[in-house]
Amino acid sequence: MIESAGPVILFGGGRMGSALLRGWIEAGVPAGHITVIEPKPGPDLVTSSTAAGFVLNGRLRSRPRQSIVLAVKPQKSSELTADIQSIAADDTLVISIMAGKTISDLRRLCPGIRAVVRAMPNLPAAVGRGMTVACADPNCTQEHLQAARQLLGSTGRLEWLNDEALIDAATGVSGSGPAYLFYIADCLARAGVAAGLPGDVAERLARATVSGAGELLHASSKSAAELRNDVTSPAGTTEAGLKVLMKDDLLQAMLTGTVEAAMRRARELAG
Known about the structure:
Helices cover 49% and strands 13% of the residues. By secondary structure, it is an alpha/beta fold. Helix 6 (167-175) packs across helix 11 (250-269) and helix 7 (177-194) crosses helix 8.
């Protein structure tokens, strides 16, 4: 059970906030320590609150060793200033997962807060397989960093960056990356249908293949390139397919452009 992170107030019950919430509860963060602030909670969030026991839209108050997690859209961040100021204490930690918002932005949003961590998790946090990158303000104490490690690391892997400027690039790779892989799984299923497979069979094959390959990549010490070579027999079926997929490095160029577009958008969202 994770208790040393202290009380947690989560602003935002959208997809990413809910994914973190599920990950925390699965990892053993006491539900009674968590308060979720979401003015328009969906039915799933309301049901989860009743089932898990976390507080939904309860009274905000200042408590020792409290962590505030900002999981709202960047455009709505200014609406939180009054609430944060009303509950901030000297030892409060603010963790932001808002795309594009810098530590300097957060300091302006939360005047008086000393400890700020900017982070970018991804959706697999909901099943304990998330990838989070984070950068901490130099004012964070070891206690603040430990609380951040527990909250962010409890949902999967956590990678600390020394250079905050790299957060936007990481957002384009791991923050948005699951959507790219879901699209690849969808494309693979449609290719199976085009080759003659029934739609439901193609869907199951594609899902199991992408998830299984991901699990193998997770469990193996080999690089992705080495694993690809392990699957590719000379003059075999996989090699024939890869010749099309890797022709002229078009896929690599498309993915590079995809990450760059996501990175630019993260910077635009910062305003």
